[in-house]
Specification:
single chain, alpha/beta, 8-stranded mixed beta barrel, 5-stranded mixed β-sheet, 21 helices, 21 strands, RNase E specificity factor CsrD
Length: 636
């Protein structure tokens, strides 16, 4: 029971007991007064009778008692009367009143003559009966007491409800639910304290937002180019490290090097402002194209050179993208007086496949850029490495056919990788999706997931994967195991999948605490308003939420509090060689500092060596996964 409710009950009980005690005392006093008054009245009658007898005895010796005394005794409701003198009975009277305990008065009227009387009367209140009028007064009095107690209870409860609301807000603050406490100000009393809590919570919220802006400022100055606000060379190196393993690329794609000739000449002739306007126009045009390409990288390598990395595209798509990029660059207006538009932009392209060396790839892109510059006009050139892996050349029709057949034949299989805590224990396992072709060979996720996104089949694939995980959780050997499952943007935005997921989690509510759903940071930031209701639904069902790829983009981190994530997972580009990169360490320290006094757990992905894990532990990261601990293994 709530403390204030208990206090209200106790105060009301004390008040009622006090009123009952007072009423009892008043009633007892009234009864005692009534008894005493009736006795006094009866004694006055006896005294009057004594006076009359003494006066008649002294003035009329012959008494003549029979003429006047019996009517008086009858009026007194006399039970019995005797008048004696020296033990000789002078007059006796026997009334018709019956009583068990009569009041007997024996008085000596004249000591000299020995005249005395004995008078028996009924108890003064034996013949008293309560009338309806008196009962009505008593009932009205009791109803007035009950109504007063009820009104007092309601009034006291209303007064203490304000204290209860203050206590509830204070409890939410102590639990760290500041947004909920701010959203429910209520009518807490004393109102001054309630307004003070609201003001402090608003200032705390502003402080958290300011901390998020400060974190973003630190990351911006570390990983962003100050002039164009896109990634700098350090950002590019981190992202390339994340796309590679042991200097070998883990997926296919293309890298472009864009160089703007005579940029220094424009700066000398037209000033810094003209260069800044040109750069902003060019960067905005390129960004408009890259928005539809997930996981693309755009960074500034040098003063007049930019790098663009787009994974998971075919060679034909890379050629088409190169033409689009050059076209949007040539559409930007140059400052007045600059006439070399036809020889200003040059684009070098290098297509890569899994296993290609990163440094060699950059050299090939640079050679392609020089070849484009040698041609004289603004154009692009693709470095020719010969035959491209045939699996990259599969058309969308073949990929759709393959994916649909794999869905029907349930040839998507879960692979798991453990997430280890700082004590060396397993916290949970992350589920990775792998597919098998008709020959039983595994198809890499980096191949079929981009194609599944293009074909709109990710909701069906991830639904099938969740079903497999729920079946595993229902088995005895997986009892108590916790699994995390990744959800894509298309999956979360699908109304059919959301309805299915809600129904499924309700049916398996006993298993939902063993599920963690992971969502990528970039889609949360870009679609926060649309995704928040769906994420809240998952959280209310009992499952936990994790945002992964944190640090991949330079964005604020206040969304972590607003979307109520339980865990965050650092992107491998931040984790890679963390022991050698103080700027990445600064980002992690700032991020963990911003999550102070929250229950958000911090994990890291892509840990490959002991030094990385040791540095992460020193920085305050509590969990990690990667090749250092275990490779993904198929779940049976």
């Amino acid at each position: 029971m709530k403390f204030t409710r208990m206090l209200t009950t106790k105060l009301t009980s004390f008040w009622l007991m006090s009123l009952a005690a007072i009423a009892f005392v008043f009633l007892l006093s009234a009864m005692m007064s009534f008894v005493q008054l009736t006795y006094k009245f009866q004694q006055q009658k006896v005294a009057e009778l004594e006076t009359l007898l003494i006066e008649h005895y002294h003035t009329q010796p012959d008494w003549e008692l029979e003429s006047w005394l019996p009517p008086m005794l009858l009026a007194f409701n006399t039970v019995e009367f005797r008048l004696t003198m020296n033990n000789e009975v002078l007059f006796a009277y026997q009334g018709n009143v019956q009583t068990q305990n009569p009041m007997v008065y024996t008085h000596l009227l004249d000591p000299q003559s020995g005249l005395s009387m004995t008078l028996s009367l009924p108890q003064p209140f034996d013949h008293y009966s309560v009338s309806w009028y008196e009962l009505l007064i008593l009932g009205v009095g009791l109803l007035a007491v009950i109504a007063l107690v009820r009104f007092g209870h309601i009034w006291l409860s209303q007064q203490l409800d304000g204290i209860e609301e203050l206590a509830q807000r204070s409890r939410l603050i102590l639990q760290g639910k500041h947004e909920q406490a701010l959203a429910t100000p209520g009518n807490g009393k004393p109102r001054l304290i309630n307004r003070a809590l609201t003001k402090l919570l608003e200032e705390l919220q502003d402080a958290h937002k300011e901390r998020g802006r400060f974190d973003k400022f630190i990351r911006s100055n570390t990983f962003l180019d100050a002039q164009t606000r896109i990634g700098n060379r350090l950002f590019l190196n981190n992202r390339l490290d994340a796309l590679s393993h042991d200097q070998g690329m883990v997926a296919h794609g293309v890298i472009y090097l864009l160089e703007m000739d005579d940029l220094d000449f424009i700066q000398q002739a037209k000033g810094v402002g003209a260069v800044k306007d040109l750069l902003h126009a060019t960067v905005n045009g390129i960004n408009s194209i890259l928005q539809s390409l997930p996981n693309s990288i755009f960074a500034r390598r040098t003063h007049n050179q930019f790098a663009i990395v787009v994974p998971h595209v075919s060679l034909i798509e890379a050629d088409q993208l190169a033409s689009k990029l050059l076209k949007v660059c040539l559409s930007q207006p140059l400052p007045d007086g600059v006439d070399n538009r036809d020889n200003f932009y040059h684009l070098g392209c290098a297509y890569f496949t899994a296993g290609d060396n990163v440094n060699q790839l950059l050299d090939e892109a640079d050679m392609a850029l020089r070849a484009a510059q040698l041609q004289g006009n603004s154009n692009w050139f693709m470095y020719d490495k010969g035959a491209i892996d045939e699996e990259f050349a599969k058309g969308s029709v073949r990929w759709r056919s393959f994916l649909e057949n794999a869905l029907v034949q349930r040839r998507f299989y879960p692979f798991s990788q453990p997430i280890m805590d700082s004590d060396g224990g397993e916290h949970h396992k992350e589920i990775f999706t792998r597919a098998r072709d008709n020959q039983g060979a595994l198809v890499r996720a980096t191949l079929f997931i981009p194609m599944a996104n293009k074909c709109g089949l990710m909701p069906q694939i991830e639904r099938q994967m969740i079903e497999r995980v729920l079946v595993l959780l229902g088995q005895e050997q997986h009892k108590g195991q916790v699994y995390s499952v990744n959800l894509s943007l298309d999956t979360l935005m699908s109304r059919a999948f959301t309805h299915w997921l809600k129904t499924t989690l309700l049916e398996h509510r006993h298993l939902t605490p063993q599920l963690i759903f992971e969502v990528s940071e970039d889609i949360v930031v870009q679609h926060q308003d649309k995704l928040r209701p769906k994420l809240d639904m998952i959280s209310k069902m009992g499952a936990r939420l994790c945002v992964d790829h944190v640090g991949q983009q330079v964005v604020g981190t206040y969304y972590i509090r607003e979307c109520h994530f339980d865990m965050i997972k650092l992107h491998r580009s931040i984790v890679r060689h963390i022991h050698l990169r103080p700027e990445n360490q600064l980002f992690i320290r700032s991020l963990i500092g911003g999550l102070y006094r929250t229950e958000v757990q911090v994990s890291a992905e892509g840990v490959e060596v002991f030094e990385e894990w040791q540095t992460l532990q020193i920085l305050g990261v509590g969990m990690a996964q990667g090749m250092y601990f275990s490779d993904p293994v198929e779940l049976q």
